[in-house]
Amino acid sequence: MLRFILVLFMGTCVKSIYTINVTNQRYRLNYHIMPPAGWSNDPNGLSYFNGQYHAFFQYCPDNPNGCSTSWGHSISNDLVHWHYAQPTIAISPNQPYDRDGCWSGSAVVNDGQLTLIYAGNVQNPFNQTINIATSTDGVNFTKYSGNPVIAIPPFDGTTGFKDPKVWRSNGTWYVVISNPTQQPNFPRAVLYKSDDLKQWTYLGSLAAEVDDSENLGSMWDDPNFFYLNGKFILLTSAEGVLRDGNRFANLFQVGYFIGDFDYQTNFFNRSDFYELDLGYDFFAAQVFEDPKGRMILMAWMYTMGSPLPEQADGWAGALTLPRQLILSEDGTRVKMVPIEELKSLRGNQYVNSPIFINGQFDPKIPCDSTEVIMNISLLQAPGKRIGMRFGYMQLYYDRQYKKLVLARNKDIRQVDLGNITQVNLRVFFDKSSVEVFANDGAATMTSRFYSDPAPGLILFAESSNEMPGTANVNLQAFHLNSIYGNN
């Protein structure tokens, strides 16, 4: 779980009996999970239990700037429409081993109970332990009397020991935990196993940076280890990876290793590190397997250094839309697509027609709670740049450099889509967020953006002497309904 400069004096926030109110709705989201008020960050404990989906999140109900975090809790019957659980706080820092925060973790179903596995945080002296809490109804949780279940990190690790992610294989529980080595700036993920979630055996390092030439940062937050279409994936949120051209443009970003894993030797033969989302605001991703066998991901729409103007309104933070993970046909990349169920949010259709663009065109589409589908044939769409503008941001395909570009103010994020003849964009706007899915998940870009009021969508096609002409695109757009109802 990311700890950052915005949260000053971590551990000194005392939870009052009062809650704060949201004072302005200008940036509140319509179809994303966000806190009722106060601060939120990492998704935690994504799971399915007793016919319902559960999404927990790091939560400070009384402070939009952060504090000693609890676990907030949202519940859904369909993975799309969510409501806050009652009580909204599942676990809070009230024990000696977690007095300064119930930090990130995961959830599994065991013996008819929903079990939360989380990192307990103590600031002075700094120490982190692994703990569990259980529930028979999926709402009211009791911390295990024998906590912590893992009291100390490996002998060669730092006291940074957090973000446990649990799964089961052949009747045995496994957990992967973030724990850098004592050698500075060498991140790693360590592995344990258990028969009962209470007694754990250390198995060693699952993966680690080999040397400085790998450029894998200083910490791997929120590790996830899972099987996807014949390959094992280690997904993690890396802190401090150095920028390399267009790669690793954010200081912190989510990436993954693909490889083969042997449960007998606990050896993970991994690939290089690849970025998962190329936008500005995407961190602390978590994955779970749903009842349909799909691997579903949600993440925190933030990264170090991004603005959070909603803090002035009494709240901060939101989760991405649920996304399905898919392995590419050649087995070398992980792709993300919006889950199919999101189509149930579609309401009024703004447009469904071909559009001819020479210069710019206003299709009269608001960017407040909208899904836009834009298909561009590069064989029939001359021009240098073709795309859309919304407020101070732009999304376009640059034909000259063959890159998809997301621009925020004077900064850009870009991705090479390869040798293509078609650019298919599916873009989700929600008041202060945008999520871009290109060419069936070949690239994704996630960002927050803040305009009050929400901007309208402007399409544009830029020509040049070398690339003149009018662009012909197919455009669809839908209003998306709220996921919250009266909540």
Structural write-up:
- The two termini are 28 Å apart.
- The chain has 487 residues and is mainly beta.
- Strand 15 and strand 16 (267-270) form a beta hairpin.
- 0% of the residues lie in helices and 51% in strands.
- The chain folds into 2 domains: 38-338, Tachylectin-2, Chain A, CATH 2.115.10; 346-480, Jelly Rolls.
- It has a 6-stranded antiparallel beta sheet with strand order 23-34-25-30-31-32, with no helix packed on it. The chain has a 6-stranded antiparallel beta sheet with strand order 24-33-26-27-28-29, with no helix packed on it. A 5-stranded mixed beta sheet has the order 4-3-2-1-20, with no helix packed on it.
- The model is unreliable at 3-18 (pLDDT under 50).
- The chain is globular.
Number of H/I helices? 0
Computed Rg:
22 Å
Query: What order do the strands of the largest sheet run in, or round the barrel if closed?
Result: 23-34-25-30-31-32
The CATH homologous superfamily of the largest domain corresponds to Glycosyl hydrolase domain, family 43
CATH C-level of the largest domain: Mainly Beta
Please describe the biggest sheet, giving its number of strands, its sense, and whether it closes into a barrel.
6 strands, antiparallel
Return the CATH topology of the largest domain: Tachylectin-2, Chain A
Low-confidence parts: 3-18
Helix-strand makeup class: mainly beta
Shape: globular
